[in-house]
């Protein structure tokens, strides 16, 4: 069972989580006309009276841009302000996850975006590891990632996640932990809610933005950290067969952080993951505000300030 934080932001005010309810006729519920974000917060290991949020500015900016696809104008600054107030009101004392959502709140029956009320909500829940920290087994999904020519993939649009849901359930019901989606060109795209990386001959390789991926914030962080560590990186199309003979494969995302892949279909990957583990170590240190070079990625919220 999820343990939700006690206070939610709903209809322009903070209310008890159990009182944040929408109508059964809400447009977003029927047509997926919503966009969401997700960011992690942790109590500062050096000062439990302070909460650390990872890349709040980038998360606010991405959700603001995603809202534009819904014909909803909400500033990144507004999103950021509400999230900061949300954290202060909830006073979390464990690692947690924040879910901000912009959505079509009108009760219209027609699939449209114009002349339709929009709204913004935020809730949260305690969260530890989303995937097994020691690694996951993946299958290649029979479902394909949408194409940008038919779906706004630069936005984190809720309707897109029906494909992720189908792929995840297919994977779990066939004995795997996670699914890897291909794009319409038959190239490796991403997992159900994570970007994907592989390591070959000391180089980190990940599908580029033109491969119909979500432009992940953790993905961007990993590429920056790798470059700073002097590890070669490359963004290009990846074939399925490359994954199966890669030296290392890992998934990345806000919830998943960095999760190694142990097996793809019937191909077992090596257990030695020096680059994955190095990146995971540095990323953990960054989120805990132990890396001075990346302190601008960490937003501090004093709970009693």
Automatic annotation (TrEMBL):
Enzyme class, spelled out: transferase
Biological pathway: Amino-acid biosynthesis; L-isoleucine biosynthesis; L-isoleucine from 2-oxobutanoate: step 4/4; Amino-acid biosynthesis; L-leucine biosynthesis; L-leucine from 3-methyl-2-oxobutanoate: step 4/4; Amino-acid biosynthesis; L-valine biosynthesis; L-valine from pyruvate: step 4/4
InterPro entries for the chain: Aminotrans_IV (IPR001544), Aminotrans_IV_CS (IPR018300), Aminotransferase-like (IPR036038), B_amino_transI (IPR005785), BCAT-like_C (IPR043132), BCAT-like_N (IPR043131), BCAT_family (IPR033939), Class-IV_PLP-Dep_Aminotrnsfr (IPR050571)
SUPFAM superfamilies reported in the protein's UniProt record: D-aminoacid aminotransferase-like PLP-dependent enzymes
Keywords: Amino-acid biosynthesis, Aminotransferase, Branched-chain amino acid biosynthesis, Pyridoxal phosphate, Transferase
Lineage of origin: Bacteria, Bacillati, Cyanobacteriota, Cyanophyceae, Synechococcales
The protein's Enzyme Commission number: 2.6.1.42
Function summary: Acts on leucine, isoleucine and valine.
Organism: Synechocystis salina LEGE 00031
Cofactors that this protein relies on: pyridoxal 5'-phosphate
Name of this protein: Branched-chain-amino-acid aminotransferase
Family statement drawn from the similarity comment of this UniProt entry: Belongs to the class-IV pyridoxal-phosphate-dependent aminotransferase family.
GO molecular function list: branched-chain-amino-acid transaminase activity
Superkingdom of origin organism: Bacteria
Pfam families: Aminotran_4 (PF01063)
Substrates-to-products reaction catalysed: L-valine + 2-oxoglutarate = 3-methyl-2-oxobutanoate + L-glutamate; L-leucine + 2-oxoglutarate = 4-methyl-2-oxopentanoate + L-glutamate; L-isoleucine + 2-oxoglutarate = (S)-3-methyl-2-oxopentanoate + L-glutamate
């Amino acid at each position: 069972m999820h343990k939700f934080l006690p206070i939610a932001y709903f209809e322009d005010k903070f209310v008890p989580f159990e009182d944040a309810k929408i109508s059964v006729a809400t447009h977003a519920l029927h047509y997926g006309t919503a966009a969401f974000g997700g960011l992690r917060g942790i109590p500062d290991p050096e000062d439990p009276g302070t909460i650390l949020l990872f890349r709040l500015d980038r998360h606010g900016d991405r959700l603001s841009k995603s809202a534009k696809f819904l014909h909803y104008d909400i500033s990144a600054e507004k999103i950021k302000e509400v999230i900061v107030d949300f954290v202060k009101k909830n006073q979390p004392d464990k690692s947690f996850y924040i879910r901000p959502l912009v959505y079509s709140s009108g009760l219209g029956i027609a699939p449209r975006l114009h002349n339709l009320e929009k709204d913004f909500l935020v809730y949260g829940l305690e969260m530890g590891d989303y995937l097994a920290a020691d690694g996951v087994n993946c299958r290649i999904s029979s479902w394909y990632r949408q194409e940008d020519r038919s779906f706004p993939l630069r936005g984190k649009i809720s309707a897109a996640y029906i494909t992720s849901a189908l792929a995840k359930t297919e994977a779990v019901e066939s004995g795997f932990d996670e699914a890897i989606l291909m794009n319409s060109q038959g190239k490796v795209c991403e997992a159900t809610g994570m970007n994907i990386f592989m390591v070959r001959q000391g180089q980190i390789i990940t599908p580029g933005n033109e491969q119909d991926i979500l432009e992940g914030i953790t993905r961007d962080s990993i590429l920056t950290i790798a470059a700073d560590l002097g590890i070669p990186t490359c963004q290009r199309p990846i074939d399925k067969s490359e994954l199966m003979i890669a030296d290392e494969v890992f998934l990345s995302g806000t919830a998943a952080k960095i999760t190694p892949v142990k097996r793809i279909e019937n191909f077992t990957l090596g257990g030695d993951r020096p680059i994955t583990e190095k990146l995971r170590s540095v990323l953990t240190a960054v989120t805990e505000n132990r890396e001075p070079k990346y302190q601008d990625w960490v937003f501090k919220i004093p709970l009693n300030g």
